[in-house]
Write a structure and sequence with these properties.
There is one protein chain. The protein has 247 residues and is α/β, with parallel strands linked by helices. It has two domains: 3-43; 51-240, Ribonuclease H-like superfamily/Ribonuclease H (Nucleotidyltransferase, domain 5), CATH 3.30.420.10. The chain is built from nine helices and seven strands; from the N terminus they run H-H-E-E-E-E-H-H-H-E-H-E-H-H-H-E. Strands 1, 2, 3, 4, 5, 6 and 7 form a seven-stranded mixed sheet that branches. Helix 8 runs parallel beside helix 9. The longest helix is centred in the N-terminal third of the chain and has 26 residues, at 3-28. It is globular and about 75 Å long. Keywords: Exonuclease, Hydrolase, Membrane, Nuclease, Transmembrane, Transmembrane helix. GO terms for molecular function: 3'-5'-RNA exonuclease activity; nucleic acid binding.
């Protein structure tokens, strides 16, 4: 325990820090070919997708009755960077229903969407055109390095195809596969958690805003996504429009 020992430890730590800083500088410059596979796995996390697009639609509904046809009345989408897991851009519109134009009291109580919020809005076909314009503005159009992320399969397996058919829109190829975070977590933990608030509790996360507000739930999904990535989960397609799980 002499002073010489302490000095040696300080010098050793300084050398380690110097080496790590040099490695980081080389990584930033893209000069990583010399790194061993172990170091590559340690310092560089591979990302299958550059961006995740989180969606959570809200739709017309009745209390204990099926509404036909059901229509999207809120269309939120968050663009999240896969490396930083931060929200980079937001698309959010309320949508005017055409077949059942008056919202039920139950629908308003569930979603927080009141009649005035949809009456003067675009219909779905117009809204979807704006969404695809947003994809172009965000340099996502005709690219395959992004993936939709949902909590549950309903949004993209049922609701979007139903709405596209109602609005005479061809379901785009980019909307035929997605990552359902319920299944991502189940694959990692062996536990399937049905409800979003229960998943937030499981991960020790607070509920943001109002559950069943589309935009608030997108933020909750973004927080779940960040937590799952932090636990080492791979965010890959779990579901597709053929009703067949892909993982």
């Amino acid at each position: 325990n002499s002073y010489a020992d302490y000095i040696w430890i300080v010098l050793f730590c300084s050398d380690v820090i110097f080496v790590l800083m040099a490695i980081l500088d080389l990584m930033k410059a893209g000069r990583t070919a010399w790194l061993s596979p172990f170091l590559m796995r340690t310092f560089i996390r591979k990302h299958s997708y550059e961006h995740y697009l989180i969606v959570d639609f809200e739709a017309t509904c009745l209390f204990k009755e099926k509404i036909v046809p059901q229509e999207i009345i809120e269309f939120p989408c968050l663009k999240v960077g896969s490396r930083t897991l931060t929200i980079e851009s937001v698309f959010h519109h309320y949508v005017k229903p055409l077949h059942h134009q008056e919202l039920s009291q139950f629908c308003t109580q569930l979603t927080g969407i009141v009649q005035d919020m949809v009456d003067d809005q675009l219909d779905f076909a117009q809204c979807f055109s704006q969404f695809e314009s947003w994809l172009r503005e965000e340099s996502l159009w005709n690219r395959r390095d992004w993936l939709f992320v949902t909590y549950g399969d309903w949004d993209l397996r049922k609701m979007l195809p139903t709405q596209c058919k109602l609005s005479s829109i061809r379901l785009p190829d980019y909307a035929t596969r997605w990552a359902n975070l319920q299944k991502v977590y189940a694959h990692q933990s062996g536990k399937f958690i049905q409800k979003m608030p229960a998943m937030l509790d499981e991960l020790g996360l607070p509920l943001h805003g109002r559950h069943h507000s589309g935009i608030d739930d997108c933020i909750n999904i973004a927080n779940i996504l960040k937590s799952l990535v932090g636990k080492g989960c791979d965010i890959l397609p779990t579901s597709d429009f053929s009703n067949t799980a892909t993982t």
